[in-house]
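Each record in this resource describes a single protein on a pair of labelled lines. With that in mind, the following record should read easily:

===
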Amino acid sequence: MLSRPQTRCLSSLARTMASPNNSPRPRRFAPLRPENHASDVPPLRGIVFDVDGTLCLPQNYMFTEMRKALSISPKVDILHHITHLPPASRPEAIEKIKAIERTAMLHQQPQPGLVALMDYLEERGVRRALCTRNFETPVQTLLDNHLPTHLFLPIITRETPGIIPKPDPAGILHIASEWGVPAEGLIMVGDSIDDMTAGHTAGAATVLLVNDHNGHLKDHRHTDLCIERLDELIGVLDGGFVGETTPDVDGEGEGVE
């Protein structure tokens, strides 16, 4: 499931379809509040959310445990490492990280403002999807426990066939294609460099949910806007999304999510 040779073609196609250089910065979307309507600004077509660290509070200890279980250094991307293991070794490695994720999912806590934001987006008719480097079970557990009445379609996980995980833009481009809209009409909300890079490369606007571990990404060139709580997006979207101009700063990926 993590070894998908056919996805190389999709990744190449995804990067061909992505046009971040043609997406003007700072990014702008028309206000969602009807009385603030601006006809000269493009409408928001939907929002893609990361899961761990975005919809729920970060569980960064998982990554330390995963790297210890796999005997890899902090600089090595976990999914990349597993994908490049000999085929006979992959199932055991996959099960090791899934076991850690299954334990962690029992302790998931929702982000402050999660339900308020989702209720608002539903009221405004904004489509929502998920794009995560997690596997399906922890994602569904979070939705069942904290967002049982909300619909996210599609849900892209690391096990979705034919789609390379973030930071590749393939997942976001797939969502845009499923919705029949340009990726430039979307916002990617996440907490990692993988989220920001995937969104930016796809041509989407990006929103960083700031926490104690990712402050260095505030000024990253792939980050369009920063928030400290999810429900801060309500005011931003009601008044019209306007991204910030950021310096040309780079960062590194982290973990599975």
Notes: Residues 107 and 129 are 23 Å apart (CA to CA). Confidence is low (pLDDT under 50) at residues 1-21. The beta strands are 46-49, 128-131, 155-156, 186-190, 205-209, 225-227.
